[in-house]
Amino acid sequence: MSFFKGKTFITMPKGSSEERPLKEFLNPKTVAIPLRAKNVDYEGCVSVGDLVKIGTKIGEKAADSISSSISGKVIAIEKRDHTSLKKIDHVVIENDFKEEREPCEYVDTKAITISGGGVKEPSKIKVKLGTQLSDIIEFIGGYTDEVIKNPKDSKLVAGAALTGKPLVTDEIAIESTSSAFLIIPPSNYREMSCMRCSACVIHCPKGLQPVQIAKAHKTKNNALLQKLGAQSCISCGMCSFVCPSFIELTDQTTKAKQLVLKDKGGK
Ligand code: SF4
Ligand code: SF4
Questions:
Q1: What is the Å distance from ligand 2's center to 197 Cα?
Q2: Is the residue at 56 inside a domain?
Q3: Is there a single domain that holds both residue 91 and residue 124?
Q4: Residue 14 lies in a domain
Q5: What's the domain count of the chain?
Q6: Would you say residue 11 has pLDDT above 60?
């Protein structure tokens, strides 16, 4: 399912999963494991047709490696959407349900929370790494009718409401860094012009000028971004949260920071 990319203006309270027992979804038909971890791309070290076990190395970078979370057959190595918002190579493995495991202590599962008012059953659930979010949502009962009717006006956020990352698709893999996903149904809020109220400036904990940073980012004016201190943004989400015009400032300030750091040789 494809979603509108945005995140901050939540009209329904986060669906509570606090009192719910931990569910398990440990037998996906396939997993798609990204060849990327800690912001670094890995070299694949399996081929289509190879048989793997839980813990078999499928990607490597120097002394580090990425392993399979299920036993089965590699059926594809292809670029797919990723939570980094880039297309990343994934190793797609078809489950043989034998649960064969290499003699190593590889952790192949992750517990995540899915909530936000856009799913029928907000849940805490333990899944295999590489399981597709869309499969998990189907397993827990699916989206609410209003999200199904209007996904483009709904929002999918990886992480917390203010600081999470807005995604455009639920065809993404669960990774060891995944923790929570919010699905936010359509709202009547629409972005308007800046009314120059200064709320974003007043509330920025780093004393930044989010609107000026967003403008400088649009023109990729790196020198001005540095002068404005974009590199100090902590992506706290406060500027977007307080904006009465519903402007998604944090997306822009976060990208501006990344641009400055990239220019300085960072990641
Ligand atoms: S996201 Fe960045 S610019 Fe916005 S309030 Fe937080 S620190 Fe300031
Ligand atoms: S809070 Fe929103 S409306 Fe107010 S100055 Fe900042 S961007 Fe403009």
A1: 5
A2: yes
A3: no
A4: no
A5: 3
A6: no
